[in-house]
Predict the 3D structure of the following.
Amino acid sequence: MKFKFSTISAAAIALMAGSAGAAAAQAAFPEKPVRMIVSFAAGGPNDFIARVISQKLTEYWGLPVIVDNRPGAGGNIGSELAAKAPADGYTLTLVSTAFVVNPSLYKKTGYDPFRDFAPVTLAAVSPLIFVAHPSLPAKNMREVAQLAKKSPLNYASPGAGTTGHLGGELFNVMAGVKIQHIPYKGAAPATTDLLAGQVKFGLTALPPAVPHVKSGRLTGLAVTTAKRVSILPDVPTVSESGYPGYQVDNMYGILAAYGTPDTVIGKLHADIARALREPAVKGRLVEQGYEPLGISPEEFGRYLKSESIKWAKVVKESGARVD
């Protein structure tokens, strides 16, 4: 009995010591600056969300959280860099839907979305919007399709593999047209060329387009969600514009390198979710057309897998490919 008691005591002590060690590791993180890689250009939606969150984390931790923009190759450059980072939580990456689309779209991405990364949280989702330069002789999606059947037409997106790209390909399939894709290195440069009339038609994230649609510098043709959005109530959905069942959402999620300790992932998730609940942060995101979330790492992992399956099907049906 004495032996049994000693064994149980030793096990209990070991368990308590392990729990205390894990708690200490979580409490100690971070002890130096944290880098957040953004795979698209400064000024776009990924960059905006990263900076809103990083500012709050800097306040919480008393240490800099540095946003590092690494645009190019539809997000692959930044994601490949993040995949090679040490698994210690000091390098994070904020990704959009392109992250799970690209393995189906490119022959080589330089990363595996599931083997190389540990989910932290899905920070937010937002609609996309089809927009046109006012000189385009089409004021709705039906007219865009009719125009595309008569003469060549291009569409701008924030990059190959983004929901702007694949959302355009999905429209091509549903409308029976072939509008040529023009990829940019983010929503900001795509919007700049749309405003200048360098390209007449595009599909981009809602936030950077909203002020220009409201001012009349761009025409809002349709939003990609199932329902209209409150920030632009007069802009119809693609579904109600004659293409029922069309729906595309963009996601903005945060990941760490695979193998990052669970305690560090837990700390990151807790503090990011806390930031997203703060009224000032939530207000900034909502007024720009984002829906703040902050779901658990496990939920985010399941979401990433479901999105991967969904978009692989769209890539296959559309025949889209990037060499």
